[in-house]
Predict the 3D structure of the following.
Amino acid sequence: MVESVALVIPSLEKLGISRDRPLVIVDVDEVLGLFMKGFGGFLDARGYDFRIDRFALFQNIYVRGAVEHLDLETGRALFNEFFASHCAEIEPAPGAIEALTRLHRRAEILILSNAPPQAEQLRGEWLRRHGLPHPLILSSGPKGPITAGLVAQTPQRTAFVDDLLPNLDSVAEHSPATATFQHVADERLRPLAPSAPERHPRIDDWAELAAAIEAAIHRP
Ligand SMILES: [Mg+2]
């Protein structure tokens, strides 16, 4: 039986987000931070290879030297352990901090990350430590419904940035007025990541991306 789970939409007011400025909603992994690199280092220290030869996650984890990838359950356990204990060690994506600092001069920033709940404290600390003291929401599943619920609370223009096409398509479906942008931070992933630039401009350089976001949210 499929049970429907009621989606709880956080209040922008309680998050400290003003309705007087445009709202930019930004992902963390492979957008603000180099997740694959950090998770790869975590796996390497435990005797696993993380082979980035396709756009996948658990299917890319191998016991060192193995031909078949690790079973998905063990991969998921490693993923959860990484988020509970090591996710504050990832490197910021090049240019991301400067770009968000620039955007924040004229817009509100909200961080929307699909990460396990146990990541909340470390992920928040990571953001603050890197000069990004913006509200953080941890979520799961396609990001369209929660984004639509957030966007509905402000009369201002909105933008959304993510590395994953399913999240971008979900936001376009549920919140069509929101400008969507794709950014893939890891250079090894860039040629592998599915894109649809006719629907979501793909801009892997953060300085260019910030300029495009500003053009979208501040146009007359
Ligand atoms: Mg991501």
Summary: The CA atoms of residues 48 and 63 lie 5 Å apart. The beta strands are 23-26, 48-50, 61-63, 108-114, 136-139, 158-162, 179-182.
